[in-house]
Write a structure and sequence with these properties.
Length: 227
């Protein structure tokens, strides 16, 4: 499994059989370092409907003639906008084109603004993605909650991607505890430094992870790791 970070919460995940992108907030994020047109994938995975996660999902799905995986209401929104979709919901899993996707709970809101109207886009979620014999847990936007421990107990997670920005999600202290509960030996910090309100020191967070025996990867946009 090769994982490339494109800023905020966007991850491109590749194996020998497939490629997917999670939460592709690219064109609206000056720190992404890549355009939607450059993305070549077999599926797009969304954790929730906020614009900094939905991002360029519909455009990428259309460009690649591939589906968007999302919680039912968000999937319907994308379908109405002309994208192929896979309707998912919390606790459900689906195997497609060499990947298995399972949706897990997250504690966060989920909506999208069009003009003066806010559109409800279902429950926010985390994603367990299995491909190439490895499992990535992308927590999406979430607070710390006790069932993260259950997710770690029930699944053999090779690497976790956790928000650390605080204010809108859990911060570094809570993310450190989440990492322990999830039992992954490797962690990528997400959802920080995109805006001043969520400024954090990713390297310091990863130093704290190492003190717990967990390897942290404070990736810059465009950087990759392989597991």
């Amino acid at each position: 499994m090769k994982i490339t970070y494109y800023g905020h919460s966007a991850l491109l995940v590749e194996s020998s059989d497939a490629a997917v992108i999670i939460d592709p907030f690219l064109s609206g994020n000056p720190k992404s370092g890549i355009s939607p047109e450059e993305i070549k994938v077999d599926a797009v995975l969304l954790t929730h409907g906020h614009s900094d996660h939905l991002g360029d999902a519909i455009e990428i799905a259309k460009n690649n003639n591939c589906p968007i995986f999302a919680v039912f209401e968000l999937a319907e929104y994308c379908r109405i906008k002309g994208a192929q979709v896979k309707h998912m919901n919390i606790g459900g899993s689906h195997t497609y084109a060499g990947i298995t996707v399972k949706y897990t709970p997250a504690i966060h809101s989920s909506s999208f603004q069009e003009g003066d109207t806010w559109i409800y886009t279902g429950q926010a979620a985390g994603i367990l993605l299995t491909m190439g014999g490895k499992t990535l847990y992308h927590a999406g936007d979430t607070a710390l909650f006790g069932d993260l421990r259950l997710i770690g107990e029930r699944n053999a997670i090779d690497i976790s991607a956790l928000p650390i920005g605080d204010m809108l999600t859990m911060g570094p202290d809570d993310a450190l505890l989440a990492a322990r509960w999830l039992r992954a030996e490797k962690v990528i910090p997400l959802h920080y430094n995109t805006f001043p309100a969520i400024a954090q020191d990713g390297a310091d967070f990863c130093d704290r992870l190492r003190q717990e025996g967990i390897e942290g990867f404070p990736l810059l946009p465009g950087e990759s790791i392989e597991i």
